[in-house]
Amino acid sequence: MSEVMDYKSRLSDPTSRKFETFSYLPAMSKEDIKKQIEYLVSKGWNPAIEHIEPQYLMDSYWYMWKLPMFGETDVDRILAEADACHKANPDNHVRLIGYNNFSQSQGASMVIYRGKTV
């Protein structure tokens, strides 16, 4: 059996904090983000975009960027909204969410743009 790695993420060290699954991978490219949006749309999930300052990352409240895009299936339009949020809040983390209206839950949630760490 292989050894389990310790990621040494600590509240006292803002640069070490990990958030959600993809934070352990390199930052997403524009094409990677587009693929994730395509996946959400293919599942029939409603996309939404949120953002937060990195120092408040561990808080449960993120700011909503406009309203969720109920029924939106245009991948380029969703990507444009994510880009607009990132441009308006360049130092914040930006998260893409896919709401599953059948199970009344989040089907997916991922940080697609990382803000500046302290």
Describe this structure in words.
The mean pLDDT is about 90. The relative contact order is 0.23. By secondary structure, the protein is an alpha+beta fold. The N and C termini lie far apart (about 35 Å). It is globular and about 40 Å long. Strands 2-1-3-4 form a 4-stranded antiparallel β-sheet, covered by helices on one side. Helix 1 (about 30-45) crosses helix 2. The longest helix has 14 residues, at about 30-45. It is built from 2 helices and 4 strands.
Mean pLDDT: 88
Which structural category do the helix and sheet elements fall into?
A: alpha+beta
Main-sheet strand order equals: 2-1-3-4
Characterize the biggest β-sheet.
4 strands, antiparallel
Instruction: Write down the Rg.
Output: 15 Å
Span of the ends, CA to CA? 37 Å
Number of strands: 4
- Gross geometry: globular
* Structure annotation, total helices: 2
Q: What is the helix/strand order?
A: HEEHEE
The low-pLDDT segments are none
**How much of the residues is beta strand, in percent?**
15-25%
| Helix content class | 10-25%
